[in-house]
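Ops channel
N.P.: pipeline sanity check, posting one input/output pair.
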């Protein structure tokens, strides 16, 4: 950002090369690669949350993957500053649309590394105003409950993105439901409905991330990413309680070579004993 000689203000933006996530997915076939891609998507969102910023419009079209695999989360036009003092002070204001004073309220933006603290005139979203994309909006966001939104609204959207990575389909009823409220709440109940090939543990991760109740979701993006990381590493996933056979199957999958060697050794011993008794 700067000022020209004629005192006109300008700002520069990075030129982004790459493909949108929905386009890039055609070149990412394996499940582990898609899950690692999802982990990289979680990183900038988690960073924004630490800085007190909520995206509110996470979806495949707003995520770009660069030529070297770098992930860029785009379109922060609907971003909301969490725990905004200006919004807290106006909690008793109109429940429908923002007033003129609210719309011109001055908000202090979070300080990012290398950037000075700035004060920007930012329109405040009024309670009852629905902003977002059906199929990726949390139910409370689809109902326009702006003051209730926190990090878990973005967790819901990330759960829908994970579902898209697993099935290449958007959340059920997102385009056919009569209202965004119905689209968000009904899709959350069936994260694995688009395909039976989705592993149960990952379907459980989607279900938890997309819970209609914010208290039923992961409390943070880091927790969601940790469960995906555990799945990749062959560890237990917090969203998916396992029985004894499930644990044994997971351990076998994680230590397949060692288990096969032990079983092969035992089989050879049994055959040797049987031959000696002849």
């Amino acid at each position: 950002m700067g000022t020209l000689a004629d005192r006109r203000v300008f700002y520069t933006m990075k030129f982004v090369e790459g493909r949108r996530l929905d386009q890039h997915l055609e070149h990412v076939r394996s499940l582990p690669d898609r899950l690692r891609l999802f982990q990289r998507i979680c990183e900038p969102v988690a960073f924004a949350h630490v800085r007190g910023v909520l995206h509110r419009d996470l979806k495949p079209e707003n995520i770009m993957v660069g030529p070297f695999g770098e992930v860029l989360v785009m379109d922060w036009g609907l971003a909301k500053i969490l725990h905004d003092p200006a919004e807290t002070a106006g909690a008793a204001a109109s429940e429908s649309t923002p007033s003129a004073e609210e719309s011109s309220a001055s908000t202090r933006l979070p300080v990012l590394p290398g950037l000075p603290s700035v004060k920007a005139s930012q329109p405040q979203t009024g309670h009852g105003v629905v902003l977002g994309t059906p199929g990726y909006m949390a139910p409370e966001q689809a109902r326009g409950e702006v003051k209730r939104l926190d990090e878990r609204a973005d967790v819901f959207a990330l759960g829908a993105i994970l579902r898209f990575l697993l099935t290449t389909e958007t959340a059920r009823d997102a385009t056919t439901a009569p209202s965004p409220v119905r689209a968000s709440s009904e899709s959350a109940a069936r994260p694995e409905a688009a395909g039976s090939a989705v592993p149960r543990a990952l379907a459980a991760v989607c279900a938890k991330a997309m819970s209609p109740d914010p208290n039923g979701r992961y409390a943070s993006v880091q927790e969601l990413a940790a469960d995906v990381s555990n799945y990749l590493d062959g560890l237990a996933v917090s969203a998916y309680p396992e029985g004894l056979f499930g644990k044994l199957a997971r351990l076998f999958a994680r230590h397949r070579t060692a288990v096969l060697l032990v079983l092969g050794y035992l089989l050879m011993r049994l055959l040797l004993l049987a031959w000696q008794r002849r």
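N.P.: looks fine end to end. Confidence is low (pLDDT under 50) at residues 94-124, 173-189.
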